[in-house]
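1st attempt posting a full record on here, be nice pls
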Amino acid sequence: MRSKYVPLPLEYIVYLPPCYDQQPERHYPVLYLIHGQNYNNDQWVRLGAGETADALIAAGEVAPFIIVMPRDRSWTQPSVDGFGQALINDLLPWVDNHYRTLPSRTYRAIGGLSRGASWAVHLGLSHWELFSILGAHSLPVFWDDTPHVRAWLDAIPLQSMPRIFMDTGEKDYLIQSTLWFEGILDQKGIPHEWYLFPGYHEEAYWHAHIEQYIRWYARDW
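the predicted structure (as tokens):
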């Protein structure tokens, strides 16, 4: 899709649950998953997000939901990369208008891995009114965001604080950034799930945990 916020068309992949065509009156929660730096929007597909969702939905272990996987083409900071604005102002309303979604924050989640986790934290906190679930896998907080994180958290009403999941590998070279953000959540007494697993900052690590991620996002739906 075209967006004034990015110079090239915003590409995205949409996963639809197996029952989508068979149940035309049903509406669905939406999970936005953002890929890592030096990858594109097929990363979550390759890691098995769709296959895992298919299996869990078919087994009746999670309710069916939609996954939207947009492509971030730039590796710059949010102050000069319009990807986040394009997602919020163009892609999100387009998805709600063209798919049978449940268009409220209760049924909308955002997550990402590596740079995608940076975006998930950036958008999930600065636009908390749109997302009730936030997942950050192997998180490096954007440099641009470090002066704002505390203020964003303080601005969110306690009863509206997103449900937060964080994880990283013990040998992840970006672990200090993850620990910094997790420490702020601890200092402020903000509930969150936090996991330190064996592993590195690599696809083998994220693939090993994909089922845990998908189960967690869809847990309350």
